[in-house]
Amino acid sequence: MWPMIAYLSIGAVQADAVFASGLQPCGEYSAGRVRQAVAAAIEAYGRPGCAGRVAQEFGDHPETAMIRMRWARAVAREAFADDAAHAVHRGGGYARA
User: What is the 3-state secondary structure (H, E, C) of 20-79?
Assistant: First the structure.
C-alpha cells in the first residue's frame, strides 16, 4: 500500500502554523508579527508538525480547537492578504475565494 500524501494549500499551512504558535486570540497582532510567528512555528515543528498539533488539539479539546482554528484562519488570511493579492496580479496560483 502506498502512503497517502496530503497536499495543503498555503493558506491551510499558514492557519495551522498560527494555530500551533504562541499567539493568543486575546492579543492584537500586526501582520509582521503574525508572519514571524508562522515562520517560527514552521521552523520549530515543520509543516507536518503544525498539522499534527492541530489534530492533537482537535482530538483532546474539539470545542475550543474549533474556536481557535476559526481565529487562526482569519488572522492568517489577514496577515497574508497582500501576498494573495500580488499573486493574482502576477497570475500566481492562488484561487479566488
Answer: HCCCCCCCCCCHHHHHHHHHHHHHHHHHHHHHHHHHHHHHHCHHHHHHHHHHHHHHHHHH
pLDDT, one tens digit per residue, over 10-29 is 999 999 999 999 999 999 99
Instruction: Please answer whether residues 18 and 75 qualify as being in contact, where contact means their C-beta atoms are separated by less than 8 angstroms.
Output: yes
State the residue for C-alpha cell 492533537: 56
Ramachandran region, residue 46 (left: φ > 0; alpha: ψ -120 to 50; beta: rest): left
Cα gap 50→78, rounded to integer Å: 19
Dig out the grid coordinates for 4 from the structure: 497517502
Output the pTM of the full model.
0.78
